[in-house]
## 1
Amino acid sequence: MNAVLLIVIPLLAAFISIVSKKIAPYLLLVVGLFNIVLLFFLENGLVFIGGFDVAMNSDLLGISLLLDTYARMALWLINGLILVIFCLNFKSYKAFSSILLLAMAGLNGLLLTNDLFNFFVFLEISGIAAYLITSANKKPVSTFRYLVIGAIGSSLFLFGVVVLYAMYGTLNMIVMIQAIQASGNYAEVILPFTLMFIGLGVEAKLLPFNAWVKGVLGHSNTLTGPMIAGVYAAAMSFVLGRFITNLFVFEGSLLIVVTVLLALGILAGDVMAFSSTKTREILLFSSIAQASIVALLFVNGVIIWAVYLIIANALSKTVMFLVINKATKDVGSDESEALRGLFVNNKLVGLTFTLVTLSVMGLPLLAGFVIKLNFLTQLAGIGQIVLIAIILVASVIEGIYFVRLIVKLWYPGESEISVKYNYSFKAVFIVIALALLVFGTYSTPLTKLDNTIDTVMEVVNNG
Amino acid sequence: MIQYASIILFVIGIYGLFVSKNVIKMIVSLNIMEIGLNIFIISIGFVGGGAIAPIISSTQDLGLIFVDPLPQALVLTAIVIGVGTTALALAFAKTIYKTYNTFELDEMEESA
Amino acid sequence: MASVELLILFLVGAGVIAYILTRFNTFLGSIFTIFAVMFVFVSLAGYGFGMNMDTTVNILPGISFTETYLGFYFAIIIVFVYLMVSFFHPYYLSEYKYKNSYNLLFLLSLAGILGAFYTDNFLNLFFFFELIIWTTMFLIPQGKSKEAAVSYFGFSIAGSVAMLIGIFITYNVSGTFSIYQGLAALSGTNAIFVFVLFIIAAFAKLGSFPLHIWLPIAHGNAPHPFSPVLSGALVKLGAFIGVLALIRIAPATGLFTAMDLPIGQYVVAILGSMSIVFGTLMAIKEDDAKKLLAYSSMSHGGYILVAFSILNGIAFAGGFYHILAHALASAGAFMAIAAVARATGTTKMKELGGMIHKMPITYLAYLIAIISMAGIPPMGGFISKWLIFQAVIDKGMIFVGIAVFFGSVGSFLYVFRPLAALFLGQELTEYKKVKEAPLLMLIPTFILMGLNVYTGVFPGGILKFINNIIVELGYTGIEVSTYEINGTNGILNPALIGLIFAVGSGIAFLIFIVLKKSRKVELMDTYTAANFVHDEHLLHYAVDFYAPLERLYEKQSNWMTKFYTALAEKVRELGKLGKYLFMSKNISTTVFWIVAIIIFLLWGEVL
């Protein structure tokens, strides 16, 4: 059993699925399940690819994958979510199974790889899959815009990688980290780090590289919404976290610029959501703010709670986009006025949506509150009171627009609307809402995982 | 020297994306940018005076100078990926043209 | 021994049971709610007064409790208001859209209240505060306006966020989340920051100027049985934070030597007096009885702030007593209005009249409540105002003094209006069939009446308990015996005053019985100087009652509302600007940002 199977099997299945369209959806289910099960059996550690001999591997030449707890959590989340989202859209978006397989391969690769150029390749693979997924919106111009911005981003990323290679003569992340630490000259890595940060920022929806989000998520459906706002956002946040905590050295003006950008992202995201009346826009802008918070936590070294925040956000946003996009499809408009009274006849869906939203807002009894309080405590521990104030002020704005939305959705306007959610949707909603509720009230398991979840540094330090 | 050329190409590509509103022109700009990048990648692998093929042979070749082979491998992959992206972009361009009968982004009525 | 933890868990469990019961039968569920709250109240009252509550925590993770006189005093008042209000539930809930969840959220918020006042940990305090906010937030839209919930939530959350920032500053300085150790460790600039932030929180929750906008919106539009909870109980959370900030933190700002008062406290006192003045003026103007009472809550919040910013025992005694007196009075008043609203379906004064004939007991309850609110003996409000006035005069605070007296006089003007408009005056034709409230609703009405009088006649016992709190806060209590209170300017004997009032009322009652009965006339049976008045509503004297006075500040009265509307509008515009800057349809914008950031970074470092 080898971690590379997590990438290879979906890729192989993607090719097979093109040959035989009929088995494609089932192939996706099998592969998804296989990946999730496989993750139980894989051991943590470096995996070497390419059949070089042991001597070369010990010098970390060649391509290697790194599986640690961090990657494992991410992989479970990503594969599981893709599977769930596809099951919910099994009937309506069967044709997308090959693309989802491709996305699975690309994202798994992103999370596993320890080689920077390989990382670029997986970035492009998952990117191409993402462009194809968003084509389900039937808004080719938005998709095209996403493609162009995505291509610019990954080109910049590659540029940065190549500059780093020219400087340190390696593409292996661990060797690179050691080399940068050894050189200690952080001024010269500002350019490549900036380029790479921007490249990742495009995909991770960080302001101001995220203009594509509005077009893509603003017209999303039950497949694209959860995929882009849930799966891709989570994967990219995980990847960004890996880079920020291990490779990137943010110091001096770079640190200031990054912090300002992220803080601006939090505020601007929530303010933009505040000024929106369309439900999907509210959700997408709020997820921009959340992505910035996650990145900001990574920059400040708050890893474990950032990871939980990513997971909670991915689950919450999946539910929220599913609820809203299904309603939008049935009603024909995503204006919050048009969706008034959505929950009058869907009390269960309404309850789960409310709980999930409360979790995103970080209100007590739900997982979001535990996470928020803990990362704020850690920020306070390192004296970042200004950042705390920014996050909290943004959360006031966030609270107001979410409450406005919830109240609208619960209380009917003039016309009654009828939206039917089938049982599979409801089951997913209930499971996620319950999970958030359970971890919100019983948070001991969360606090048990310590802050050293990220093992790259250990590998770096211990060889 | 060639590095400057590649960076100039890259910047031209960026400039093209900055000013053009035409779908096809944007794809062309994207390609120019990628070509600039590819040349840059190749250029960093160049080692002056390298005259030997970078192959591990049975004979002792220590001390011999050869060109760094890794960038060449990288650039091949990068080109392939670039082609893939371009193809996809062109496919979307086709859909756009079918839907709106124009390649000019300004002339399309699609709410952002 | 009653354990705080078990009471909280009991309330959560009871909430779930109440939800299920309400689902099948609204009345049954509400009765269950009454008993649940009663159980909590009885356990609290039985053990709490002697500080015999069990504060050990065995089940709840990360939560710790401690017992203080201060916390208990707040808790018992609020639980009492909850208990009184719960008697109203059986008659109101059936008309609400999501009635099943009403009792659940009601009990959950009570669990939050208990936790908030018993915890000794800042994070727990924040946890319980937020719990209270969101559970009560979902209760409000069940009433008239759906947007009221947004306004309530916005201000409350802004308040608790300010508090949380303060908490984190404290944590950063002291390294602990313990309330008492943390606040004790503050000093210098940090103390001032935390003080300001806590004061913002206190103002937001208390609905004091300039964070008062939500108060009339939320009180006026909340479900009828919930308005008394908001006004009598929930705004007191703000008073609690205010006490923490003003007395526990008490930062070392400069001192006004003339008044021997730190500047921070003085500013709060001034803002509190502005609350008193504006609340009074707005209440005079208001036509909706519930909104009128909401503005009166605002002005009473001001009294509480003034009291706690004057750092001595008499003022504190007045402040704590005022919390109790106002909770009882405003609960009584709001519940009387609620009873009227249930019978008639409106709270607008000009649409009502003559309810005294149909609902005499409710009338009496309202009368006693407003007498207490206006601070007239022999009700509880008099005692607290007497103490506060003394403290203010003693310190020589001129502006504050003017404000508190103005508020007192002003409250005669406004509390009298609903009395006259709703209960007195002519009976309108559409309310011929109205009946007195049912017996279950009269129980709390009688209890509140009794307590309003009791607090005014025999304040000794309660003031002795308040002395415990004052000592706990590190100040000396006031001198009080069973019948007398020693102030700095004299001795008050409330029981004597009460007796004189009783005698006076008795004589008046005798005259009423003995002398000739007044003749009842119809509203239209009047002389209208050759004008033909076709609609009796125009003759209603609540219409434009204080027109000349209102005209003085008509234009200024909605300044604050306008300010907050404009603020929301500005945020919205900012959002539009953000969308324009970052979310443009043009790819060039993104390219521009990327290039700009790269150039900016390279400019400083590499180039």
## 2
Amino acid sequence: MAIKVGIGVSIHKDPLQAAKEATEEAKSKLKEDVSIGFIFSSIEFAHPIVLKVIKDLIQSAPLIGCSGLAIISPQGILKRGLGIMLLNLPKDIYIASACVKQINTQPISDPGELLGENLMHGFKGLRRCFGMLFCDGFIPQSSTLISGLQKVLGKSFPLIGASASNTSGSLKSYLYFNQDIFNDGVCGLLWGGKLNFSFGIKHGWKPLGKPRTVTHSEGNIVYKIDGLPAVKLYMEYLGWGLDKLKRELKYISIFYPLGVNIPGQEEYLLRNILRIEEDGSLYLHGNIPEGSIIKLMIGTKESCLQATEQAVDETKRNLYGKSYDLVFVFNSLSRYILLGRRAKEEIKIIKEGLGKEVPLLGLYTLGEHAPLRAIAYQGMTYFHNQTVALLVIGG
Amino acid sequence: MLLNESLISQINNVIILASFIMIIALVILLTSKTEKIKQLESEVDELKRSLDEMDEQAKLIIRTDIELNKLQEELDKKMSGLYILQRLSRIITTTLQENQIFALIEPNYIEELGFEKASAFLWNEKEKQFICCLHIGYLKDEIETVKKFIDLKNEIYLNLINNQRSISSLRKDEEIFTKEISEIFQVNSFILAPILPKEGEKGFLLLGIDNPEISITEGDEELVMILANNIGQALDNARLFEETWRAQQELEYKVEERTRQLTEALEEIKKVSQRKTDFISAVSHELRTPLTSIKGYASILLTGKLGQLPNEVRERLERINRHSDELVHLVNDLLDISRLESGRTIMKQEPQNLKEIIDHTIDLLAVQLKDKRIDLIVNIPEETFNIFVDRSQIERVFINLIGNAIKFTPEEGRITISSFKIKDQVQVDITDTGCGIPEKDQEKIFEEFYRVDNPINQIVKGTGLGLTLVKRIIEAHKGRIWVRSKESVGSTFSFTLPMST
């Protein structure tokens, strides 16, 4: 049986009115009881009262989502807006939701594992298909959250999700879970039962130059590459001094991220540089284990859009002709910045590729969680940067 | 025993030989392996060199790519900036109200231009202070603080305006100055451009970015300067419109005032004219009764029934009788004009034959025509026969006009009466070969009591009311009368009459 979907969007200046407007629109389109609600919004709508209004309207159904730089909606990209997707699930599709808060202020050894256990708590004995997760975009554990979840759910269990983001320059992002709004946390949703789903994950950056070895790293900080301070790699390739490199870092990080070679995989895992430390080490958005073979990556607007087309094709290919009822788009904000005015083209490719009539909702993220290769049950989930991750689900 | 020793010796020899052969073989193998290793090492070196070369090429590619990307980004930014600017300019130039220009610059335009904050100030010469016309991205108290700081050092900003100079945080040679502006306007980078309308208050526009990660470019500077320039032009347009509008208002007021005065004057004239008409009418009536008595008594006396009159008395009585006739004629004309003016005369318009009216008039005036041997040409085509008029009144028109023509045409002169059709009207022309009317008099001859100063008028007496009466009768028939004349050549009096359907 098909999943019933209703999407509502609002750009009303008053967050309260916007929440009411979007939820009522979604409800009127759904015309059924709400099983679960997803909310993605720009930062202006990150307010508890917004969640209260929505919860009052959808009653006991769980609500999950996060903030983003911009919303991807049926109406296009909204820099300031609120999007709600309400689902009515058939009886043979199961979900379980959970969240873990204050992961950096509480002594939680493995928040990913804890989230996995909380999710599994309501899912014992049921066939689980895949998981969705949303985490604060500014926590350093984005990569380790996945390994924690994999301890409980299995190494090859597919996970897909987004790191929440915010307007450029702001360092806070928000998670929405039922009536709670918080950062420094993670929330997840486990899907199971009789459903069809598929992923498509691509970035479009290509490796350039000779392979290098990470000779010293800890988590998301790379200290040395080929025995030299990590920053030397960029100074060498660009021919720039440290000051200029620091000044242009945001731009360089998007155009020329580091690519981590994963043995046995075709695609490189991308890593953005968030800052250059005084000792010449690179503070990355995601981990690179010591001993990893890395390369400098290069991308263009064209290669970026080509990758989106490939992600669409991959999503459809992995479905093996099965139907789907809705689309989620988790797209990196780096792609939004890189593409500029052509960002609309990317959304058009997705809409046209996956069906103009299929309900679609998404957001621009600080990082994406998805299997490196989108072959169900075979790809292992990683934390990505600069990637477009597509998820389609059908009953 | 010896055999054994010999055998052992032979075996030893074989072993030695075999060992020797093995050693040689090993040496050969080792040599070959060493060569292979050397070859492989050389290949590895070659590969390393190729890899290094490839890496060098990669560096070149990246450096070129950066340049290209930067150029592309700048170009994209410029294009999108120009697009926004065009939209914004179109919007601000649509208003002709000065206070609306800044209100139309909405936050989304500033955001799309790539800025977070915007403010604009105009210098008020009377109050000697800057007036804030636009603030985006500032709270009310924040912009008030900004204004205070600007007013404290207003000479700096006035200097920029007067020198038509823009300034931005890109200017590293003026870092102290630009840093101060950045602090005042609470931005990390900014562009300040003067707003320079040709007339009136001048000022400046500042667009800024708070986010230290976003940098401005020279392209941005050009865009802000164009925007400031467009605002200046919009201000000019608005002010010009305001000025024109005020002038028009003033003119409209003056026209209204003048019209009111003229209406009042016209009303007064109408009243006076009415009073004159009433007066003439009253006086004429009052005059007619005694005149009738005078003329009656004079006529009785002249019959001689009351006794034979001496010649001198008869002569004087005849003069009284003649003058009384003239006076009666004058009074009648005055009364007719007065009736026509007041609308008391009702035109009994009926279908009539123009030719018959003209022939009848000619019969009446046949003696005078004959006396002066005037050649009369009448050209009335049949299509103009049917007219819709009050016959008795139109006969008076013809008597007056033909009578005048006879009066002013010398002996053996010529009078032509012709008519032709113009749409639903008939135009009649009466042309004489008389002395003509001077140009200065041509417009006045239809006025009451106006008589052209010429020798004939000095000899022949007249009331000066004939043409006035003619004009009133024609106008009462919704027609028009005019004259074309040349001195010593003659005159043509033309008038129109309604046709009978």
